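General statements about sequence and structure are easier to judge against a single worked case. When preparing material for the folding task, we compiled for one chain both its residues and its backbone structure tokens. The amino acid sequence and the backbone structure tokens for this protein are reproduced below:
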Amino acid sequence: MSLDTFGTPKELKGAIEYQENSIVSKALIQKKEGSLSLFAFDKNQALSEHTSPYDAFIYIIEGDALIKIGGKENLVKEGEAIALPKDIPHSVKAEKPFKMLLIMIKG
């Protein structure tokens, strides 16, 4: 799936599949101003703490994610979203498989 056909509804949950012991990513839009990407985290997979020069917004499509921002851990459930400010350390962890939409915007 890509968003080349703007103006047409897209189903995101089935647009990316889990891969055993992996994190799968799929770029939907990639521009200098920001990006829109799907991720599928298998159980016990994680992105270690890091920073980004972009503000980010994560929407959980399926499952639950542990997202730590500036030292505070948040359980973000299916259908919920969380904003991540640029330059603040954050990490993402899967205790069980989950899928997310990541929106990054250059600020």
Observations:
- The chain is about 0% helix and 55% strand.
- The mean pLDDT is 94.
- The domain at 13-106 is CATH 2.60.120.10 (Jelly Rolls).
- The longest strand covers residues 23-31.
